[in-house]
Amino acid sequence: MPHSDSAPVSSTPADFAVLEEIAHTWRPDDARTTDPLDPAPTAALSAVLDLPAPAALDGEPLPPLWHWLHFLSWPRHTELGPDGHPRDSRFLPPLPQRRRMFAGGRLEVSAPLTLGRPAEQHSRVSQVRPKRGRSGNLLFVTVRSDYRQDGRLCLTEEQDLVYRSGGQAPTLAVPLPESENGPLADASPWQQTWRTDPTLLFRFSALTANAHRIHYDAPYTTGVEGYPGLVVHGPLLVLAMLELVRRQQPDREVRTLSYRLLKPVFCGEQLLACGGLEDDGSSARLHIASHREEAHAGADVGFA
Hints:
Helix content is 16%, strand content 32%. The protein has five helices and ten strands. The chain starts with 15 loop residues before the first helix and ends with a strand.
């Protein structure tokens, strides 16, 4: 989902030649960190998602993508920009007035991470490419991360981030969320309705160290960013889709996952997480629907 980063430089948009130069020359150093994988964040997210019990306990496998609760960065308060994001960090490209969109990602699972045992993360920028979009010039950045535990490679993850530069965020031509409108009809065999509220978004922001104001500051979100309401986190939509798999196929191990974030969801909208197995039973296709869109996000899951 859209996130925006404000950089302390000129507000002049970068032209395509500048993006090409960044793609050719920008090579940030790799980043390495460790995390004890304490069970507390998993228990906390389970409560936020209103699960009857923690999704995993100490010594048990962590569900796919729940490592997003770990390996977090907490910049000093004075290092944040006016939108709540860091003004600068290792993997932020040197663009004027950066605005970031989290577009999607992929995950390969060799073995699940185990709660309560230290793990290592090794991250690097694996691809940078400019592109001319309908709404302006864009810079696509892919960050690849490997996760190891006890010396074994467990997870390989790629995240696709899209950056534009300069000016204010465009005002989106979408209606205000109408809480009484249910999602569009869907024929998928797996379905779970859910609704977001400001408390849910605030708690998820805290658990993922996400201080972006579009998730909790309504006047900023509507007045500065141009959205009709608080924006639901893209990662939260992805985790909601994966909850369908955990509930419908509890004994199957996820080996591959790809997800796409397509259209923003706004706080208060009634949503439908839906999907089902593909014909051969070896994979599942998932999406998030509302009364406005058939698919705000989509995911493909491959089983062992």
